[in-house]
Automatic annotation (TrEMBL), chain A:
Keyword Mitochondrion: yes
Catalysed transformations (reactions): beta-nicotinamide D-ribonucleotide + ATP + H(+) = diphosphate + NAD(+); nicotinate beta-D-ribonucleotide + ATP + H(+) = deamido-NAD(+) + diphosphate
Originating organism: Oncorhynchus mykiss (Rainbow trout)
Cofactor requirement: Mg(2+)
EC number: 2.7.7.1, 2.7.7.18
Domain Cytidyltransferase-like per the UniProt entry, residue ranges: 85-252
Primary enzyme class: transferase
Subcellular location: Mitochondrion
Entry similarity comment: Belongs to the eukaryotic NMN adenylyltransferase family.
InterPro entries: Cyt_trans-like, Euk_NMN_adenylyltrnsfrase, NadD/NMNAT, Rossmann-like_a/b/a_fold
Protein name per the record: Nicotinamide-nucleotide adenylyltransferase
Automatic annotation (TrEMBL), chain B:
Catalytic activity: beta-nicotinamide D-ribonucleotide + ATP + H(+) = diphosphate + NAD(+); nicotinate beta-D-ribonucleotide + ATP + H(+) = deamido-NAD(+) + diphosphate
CDD domains, sorted: NMNAT_Eukarya
Cofactor: Zn(2+); Mg(2+)
EC class: transferase
One GO biological process term: NAD+ biosynthetic process
Protein name per its UniProtKB record: Nicotinamide-nucleotide adenylyltransferase
Transmembrane spans: none
Keyword set, alphabetical order: ATP-binding, Magnesium, NAD, Nucleotide-binding, Nucleotidyltransferase, Nucleus, Phosphoprotein, Pyridine nucleotide biosynthesis, Transferase, Zinc
Compartments, record wording: Nucleus
InterPro entries documented for this protein: Cyt_trans-like, Euk_NMN_adenylyltrnsfrase, NadD/NMNAT, NMNAT_euk, Rossmann-like_a/b/a_fold
UniProt organism field: Oncorhynchus mykiss (Rainbow trout)
PANTHER family: NICOTINAMIDE MONONUCLEOTIDE ADENYLYLTRANSFERASE, NICOTINAMIDE_NICOTINIC ACID MONONUCLEOTIDE ADENYLYLTRANSFERASE 1
Domain Cytidyltransferase-like residue range list: 12-224
Lineage per the UniProt record: Eukaryota, Metazoa, Chordata, Craniata, Vertebrata
Gene3D superfamilies on file: HUPs (3.40.50.620)
Amino acid sequence: MEKICCMFLDDAPCFLVDNMTERRRLLLDLRRVLLSHCFCPFTSRAIDRCSVTQYNPICPMSESGEDQESHQPMIYPISGQFQVVGGIVSPVSDGYGKQGLVLAKHRIAMARLALQSSDWVSVDDWESQQPDWTETVVTMRYHYGRILKQYQEGTGKDSGPTTNPHHLTSSSPRLKLLCGADFLDTFKVPGLWLDDHVEEVAGRFGLVCVSRGGLEPELAVHESETLSRHWRNIFLVREWVRNETSATEVRRALRRGLSVKYLLPDSVIKYIHQHNLYTGDSELKNKDVLLRPLTKQTEMPVKTLDD
Amino acid sequence: MEPQDLTKVVLLACGSFNPITNMHLRMFELARDYLEDTGQYIVVRGIISAVGDGYKKKGLIEACHRVDMARLATDTSDWIKVDAWESQQPEWVETAKVMWHHYKELMTAEQNNDYVDTAKKRRIEATKHSFEDPSSYHTRRDNGPQLKLLCGADVLESFGVPNLWKHEDIAEIVGRYGLVCITRNGCDAHKFIHQSEVLWKHRKNIHVVREWVTNEISATHVRRALCRGQTVRYLLPDPVVSYIREHGLYSAESEQKNADVVLAPLQRHTGLLYLRLCSRSIYLLLV
């Protein structure tokens, strides 16, 4: 059974990142969805075919394709293939340059508060500590190396060079990027992603993508050569309870002095008030600044892994 | 406006709360922000009133659990409280009667708190006798808090379902008290009000509050997830999630409770139409 350590990239308090769009997801919702729809931590669970069509995730299965429908090539039942062993929230560094981004130290503190009661998701500040914005693949490589090393030390196994995926045994953990449906559309934005990076994220690692509003992640996968080539590595999770609390809305409510209780954990709300975060001024930060990925990747693209 | 010029409001939410969810709690926060933003009101209290077991809704678990969960959920709120009166009544109580009960309590409390302003006290005494006549629509009292029913758009639209509400009850709720309706779709709500004579007459008493963040955490969905052994974390407050787990609530079995029983309001009114109220939609089955 494959072990998965899902990873969240994050650039706002307790929210998932999507590189270009304004919208965010509450971390909390996605973790819940992940647990309920896709994986059950520490136990495996077979999800039968009836429930797949109703609300379970649309997941590719590498073996039989007898459930394949012509218009939805990626519907397959998932049958106890995975065990989720951890979740990582990785807030982006201040160098990202996104409008309204408050200091990383606050975003880290808030994420920690929100995750205090979670027994499987933790916050990692490595990315936020880097002097410049870090490409997604670089962050993923870092975490994957770390996880693998921990696993090897824990089991005493040596599965070869950490960067070579082909030496991995089927029981060593995998790292997957967890994101919202709008994130998949960011791959199309010119200058935001390097093709090789998309290849690595989808091919080497894999994506777990949660539906959002009326967006159709299947379409985004279908329209991308790279993504559709790696369909086996892309898990689409349908969240039937639409809960579109976005960080943008939360920040808007805070600016206007409106209540955000029951949208965020109380401890995070308290922190926000104590530090007077999210004001009219904070939203103007980075207003005329170009997003760092757009400038950095043209200057000095990060090398791919075949070196 | 000076604080003393603001109209005090108490928001009352009636419902199954089977179980209470973050969506229910958000409704209170949204309603308070909206009313206070008008500059005319100050919301002084929120009341959660869970329906009694006599309602006979399918899947309705015991009132004592539903009240306990609501109490856990509102533990961290300094203005939302749970009232168990309705849940303790042996038979189902119409919403208008529940409102009347709470209205009387508010007036009594207001009277007892007022020691200084004797002129005000005399005014209260003078109108005291009219407490016995809930059907008279005397003018709104300026010296006591206003009680308003807090609900979602589904409740507003349920006013249109035959035999579910008594016409005079609807008139009393919107005429005497007022409604604060939280909805994603403001247009539909306004249209519904526009198309109803009684609602249109009292439209100034109906506040439609837009919910900009789509939040469809329905108790039905929560129960479904629980029956399937799935997590509902972050849909309900953590203490409620723990309570459900500790007491083993919400199973396939509990969902079958009252499966063949007619909903109390319909039993009471006529038996011609069966109705199953879901949180967001209404199914009509003709007998």
